[in-house]
Amino acid sequence: MKQHSIQKGTSASSSHAMTRRQFSALMGIGLASVSLGSLTGCAQKHEEHTYDVIVVGSGGAGTTAAGIAAQHGAKTICIEKLPWQGGSSSIALGTFYGSGTVQQQELGITDTPDDLYNYFLKRGAEHVDLAMNRFMADHAGETINWLREDLKVPFQDTIKGNGTDKVQRGHMCKNSAYDALSAVRTFADDQGVTFAFDTDARSLIVDNGRVVGVLAHTPMDDVIYHAKTVIIASGGFCRNDDMIQTYCPDYVGVPTEVGVGLVGSGLQMGLDIGAGFAGNGGTNGILFCDQDRDLTALISQTCVWVNKNGERFVNEKAQSHDIYYKVHHEPDQHFFQIQDTKMINKLTEANKLSVEKGLKSGIIVKADTIEEAARQIGADPTATAASVAAYNQIIDSGTDSQFNKNLTSCNKIETAPFYISTFGIATHGSFGGFDINTDFQILNEEKEAIPGLYSAGEVCCGTFIYQDYPAGGCGLNFAYTSGRFAGANAAEEALQA
Ligand SMILES: Cc1cc2nc3c(=O)[nH]c(=O)nc-3n(C[C@H](O)[C@H](O)[C@H](O)COP(=O)(O)OP(=O)(O)OC[C@H]3O[C@@H](n4cnc5c(N)ncnc54)[C@H](O)[C@@H]3O)c2cc1C
Fold first, then answer.
1. In CATH, what number is assigned to the domain containing residue 199?
2. pLDDT tens digits, 147-188
3. 148 lines ligand 1 (CB under 6 A)
4. How far is the CA of 256 from the centre of ligand 1 (A)?
5. pTM score, whole prediction
6. Could you report the per-residue pLDDT of 96-150, keeping only the tens digit for each?
7. By residue range, what is the domain housing residue 190?
8. Whether residue 98 is found in the same domain as residue 121
9. What does the angle CA 48 – CA 52 – CA 58 come to, to the nearest 5 degrees?
10. At 492, which helix (H) or strand (E)?
11. Does any ligand 1 atom lie closer than 6 A to the CB of residue 141?
């Protein structure tokens, strides 16, 4: 028997049809779920559509899921709250991490899914979901092959050794991640997917415990989308301070560079109908000039960096994702980069202008001694000078006994005046979201699949990634791989219904 009451947050009675005003009020407060019965009783007319599969979010995960669902024969719509495909997938650098690829074979790189699985185990997989990590190890390379060989996404000629494993697995799009996103968009268009932009999913429609649609809001109208299955691919929640406080409290106050739509509303829709949450408080991110992002380009790994205590704290040439975690644990989550006049003179004209800008705003200081520059910027002067002296000795010796940095292109800091710049970090994604199984069904708090509800991408990556990012390229690959499988599984279930 169908429910005839709004499920949460309201006591609206079953037998009363909703007026248009009530419906709009419901949309306005973003109520997370309504029963089908309440909707079918709506007195006023509003837009309604019926599909086999609805995908929420048009990032790499959602667009891939939609394209694959349609390829399997499902009538599919992808709804996106922004007027464009503006998720993190549209602004990402474009590295995909995976093993056993055609490109690795072409380059003579020996690697297998077993090797990748063993690497994931070293990066915390045993704390999360082994089955999901095995699944990703087995299918990540397949996704890169699909993008490169089938969809003809252009990739760079070399593969990077990301993470802490020596094996080269970082397959980089030729220009940026948009190469992949535009290719899957073309693929989805070719399969007949309908895209609805400016369409903000607000609530899931539930009938007898089964998800059967989505309520959405557009600038023109409220829309009811009926469907046999729904895939939530709404990305992470770095732009939602309350969710960061709740799920990633260590990262409160850290600026973010993720897509503007990533406020966690898709996640909230699912949580409010009883979806379980899987996550361990992690994020990934990058080094960043939080006071003026234009100055981020001045961050140089050939320089020496110290913390507020004036101590050198990291191999400046390590993976920037790993340095992110180190900076996150430093006082104030900032670090100071020290350069001398010879280094500044070698910068490009554009970067020299940025230095001038930084000097005016105080993000960069300049002084005749290291101690004075450190004092001005707020680092311990004596310790900073000692760190620079030790670094100069390291350059002279040709070996970094402290952090094992490769010293190629690194020089002594000796010509006054000296420059010290302040940099920080920004998040690039949140690790945590829907608890899922390897069919990409969303699980409830009792670990049972919620009928009709699937997920893909960052909104459900907490089963794959523990606290720290295993390697650059795992976020995009998880988005596209989960999209492929969520799309196929959701279509199969929809077509059987
Ligand atoms: C600057 C930057 C660089 C990065 N570089 C890399 C990289 O090189 N390699 C890598 O592996 N990872 C990288 N990442 C991480 C990676 O981009 C993400 O993990 C991945 O793109 C997530 O894809 P997604 O499809 O799950 O989410 P997204 O691409 O963020 O898409 C989610 C979409 O859902 C929409 N949406 C949200 N809520 C709703 C709603 N209620 N209704 C309708 N639509 C909604 C959003 O507007 C958005 O368009 C980077 C991240 C950033 C920010």
1. 3.50.50.60
2. 999 999 999 999 999 988 889 999 999 999 999 999 999 999
3. no
4. 12
5. 0.91
6. 999 999 999 999 999 999 999 999 999 988 898 999 999 999 999 999 999 999 9
7. 1-276+435-497
8. yes
9. 80
10. helix 474-496
11. no
